[in-house]
Amino acid sequence: MVAVRYKTAFQLYPYQRSPDQDLSTPVRHPVVIVGGGPVGMALALDLGLKGIRVVVLDDHEGVGMGSRAICFAKRTLEICDRLGCGQPMVDKGVVWNLGRVFRDTHELYSFNLLPEDGHRRPAFINLQQPHFERFIVERIREVQARGAPIEIRGVNQVIGVEPRGDHVALEIDTPDGPYRAEADWLVACDGARSPVREMLGLGFKGRVFQDNFLIADVRMKADFPTERWFWFDPPFNRGQSVLLHKQPDDIWRIDFQLGWNIDRKAVVEPESVLARVRAMLPDTPVELVWTSVYTFQCCTMERYRHGRVFFAGDAAHQVSPFGARGANSGIQDVDNLAWKLALVLRGQAGEALLDSYDLERRHAAEENILNSTRSTDFITPKTPVSRMFRDAVLDLAERAPFARSLVNTGRLSVPAVLDGSPLNGPDDAALPARTRPGAPAVDAPTERGWLLGLLGDEFRLLCLNTEHPAVTVGGVTAAPVQLSTEGWPHLAERWLGDAPRAVCLIRPDQHVAARWIDPAPGAVAAALARAMGLADAEA
Amino acid sequence: MLKLDPNLPDPDGFYAELLAAHEGLTEAESHALNARLVLILANHIGDRAVLAEALTLARETAAGGRR
Predict the structure, then answer these.
(1) Are A380 and A242 a contacting pair, CB within 8 Å?
(2) What's residue A539's pLDDT?
(3) Which residue among A93, A342, A492, B45 is least packed, with the fewest CB closer than 10 Å?
(4) A387 to chain B: nearest residue by CA?
(5) Contact call for B36 and A392, based on CB within 8 A
(6) pLDDT given for residue A479 in this prediction
């Protein structure tokens, strides 16, 4: 039997017996994804849209209860736009720009994220994770109806994983008992406690933080503005921190730091939670929606590819919640892996390309862990001297603007620039640094709509104020997207700087692979080969 | 490059001013003042290479002093 580990918010994929279960010989699938959370479902959608047959195994029938990840960053929304599910997220989500930092009872300072104009998507939206997941699954249902080869199997729990050279053998438990299946490629998106990782005996190393946090999601009709409020040492949670954040549907997330030595059962008693909330908001009627107490760690696997098994999202790397780098980085894992797996499954690239997933996403995870660890050290100082410096920063922050730059309540997720990736080709240093090889393409309005919408999900040659023919390597074509920057200052500033023209090779995940002002004959083909992991072809 | 040669006008005067700033403070208050002072001066210097040299020097001389 498959154990029920949590309650579901939306029942989206009830158990149905699969024909696989009646066959004596295990069925071989090109890609099996373990775990139907945001990462697993986004990967299934990305692969399915590329025509790759994919099966998702999830041990529940839908999306888990609880808001959990609530901050979705611009890059995540851009990836979801590419997958066709960004708009409902933005429609439902709450956009915020202003943050306030308090100490004790008074405000130290406020900051405005001041989102740069000329982007389709805001810097962040707040949206409960179940909605985020539901929009992805709804999009999967939409593309399934049009023939995308995605299959979701609810209440299918993987209980055995055995790598066998050219495939991975699986044993899967269901309400009708276990069955066997095989996968050419297996992707474990089964969360921080990844059972697949455990079954394969692979490590997960890092730092555990000795602190507890209490999440209280409350519904209240409050006329607070849509802002992020962060308190150090407030009277209603002495010596600790508190975060208040708005979600859709009049729900607010309150995050109380609790310290280490607490009674984890007692603090989540509704009366105890409500007492805390009332101390904070004495005049506002509130209704408790969801509570959870959590500790966290910053950990990573040593490698995210183990032969035919990949790890993505929290299964591969885990961060503290400060900075919203969990789900957001998991979606970037998907963005990075899907096109590579698709090229290899179509026989257009060699397996070496798959190693770049490990390299590029570990680079990103290290950056996320670094940032998230630094935020944690600031918010929850663990030694007398680190508390002394933290308090010194807060003492100064009200009067001295420089000290505000040291206040770290979470450095909000920005996508990793894949500097040094072996897939990166030539650069021209005269072009702007922010769109250098390895960087995610920066959106801008153009004569034909938003740039990222024009780039889509295949290799492209972005030709600004110039022309270049399509380039094909090993059956993969980079088609030109030709644009004039005349009258489009954002496009010119972000992609040309002072240069008169440029040709930029863009990967299917919309990261820049290479760029030139005037590419020499053959240069683009060589860079395309390199970006496909065929570095030898360049020689 | 971190300056190690004398650079302070009236060094005795500065030393007295530093001690005066700590006058009447408890040890904890003095530590806190020092922490604020470090941050203020670090921002004023604004050069990470110089600050890295200063941190190294401060750390190394502490080890030497204990010998």
Answers:
(1) no
(2) 39
(3) B45
(4) B32
(5) yes
(6) 98
B41 and chain A in contact, CB less than 8 A: no
Q: Residue A217 contacts by C-beta under 8 Å, 6 or more apart in sequence?
A: A66, A67, A247, A251, A252, A253, A254, A288, A289, A290, A291
Between strands A54-57 and A150-153, the pairing is parallel
Question: Who contacts A369 (Cβ-Cβ below 8 Å, separation ≥6)?
Answer: A206, A298, A299, A300, A317, A319
- Residue of B31, B32, B39 lying closest to A403 (CB–CB): B39
Do A395 and B40 lie within an 8 Å CB cutoff? no
- E-assigned strand segments in A42-165: 54-57, 62-64, 71-73, 98-103, 106-112, 124-126, 150-153, 157-163
Contacts of B31 in chain A (CB under 8 A): 388
- Min Cα distance B23 → chain A (Å) is 19
The DSSP line for A348-401 is: SS-THHHHHHHHHHHHHHHHHHHHHHHHHHHHS--SHHHHHHHHHHHHHHTT-H
Mean local confidence (pLDDT), B1-14: 96
Q: What is the pLDDT of residues A252-263, one digit of tens each?
A: 999 999 998 899
Report the DSSP pairing between strands A287-300 and A205-219: antiparallel
- Percent of chain A past pLDDT 70, that is, above it, reads 99
Correct CATH for A8-91+108-204+299-368 of 1.10.340.30, 3.50.50.60, 2.30.29.170, 3.30.360.10: 3.50.50.60
Of B32, B35, B43, the CB nearest to A402: B43
Q: Where are the domains of chain A?
A: 8-91+108-204+299-368, 433-538
The stretches in chain A having pLDDT less than 50 are: 537-539
- Contact A388/B36, CB-based, under 8 Å? no
pLDDT of residue A537: 47
CB pairs under 8 A between A and B: 25
Architecture of domain A433-538: 3-Layer(aba) Sandwich (3.40)
pLDDT at B15 over 90: yes
Instruction: Report the alpha-carbon distance of residue A353 to residue A91 in Å, rounded.
Output: 36
Mutate to test the interface with B, among A394, A396, A404 (most CBs of B within 10 A): A396
Q: What is the pLDDT of residue A179?
A: 97
Q: Which residue of A has its CA nearest to B30?
A: A388
Strand partners, A168: A163, A183
Rounded Cα–Cα distance for residues A55 and A29 (Å): 7
Per DSSP, what are the bridge partners of residue A63?
A10
Helix (H) or strand (E) holding A276: helix A270-280
The SS3 of residue A323 is: coil
Confidence of residue B64 (pLDDT cuts 50, 70, 90): low
Q: How far apart are CA A130 and CA A68, in angstroms?
A: 8
Q: Hey, are the CB atoms on B32 and A388 less than 8 Å from each other?
A: yes
* Residues B25-53: tens digit of each pLDDT: 999 999 999 999 999 999 999 999 999 99
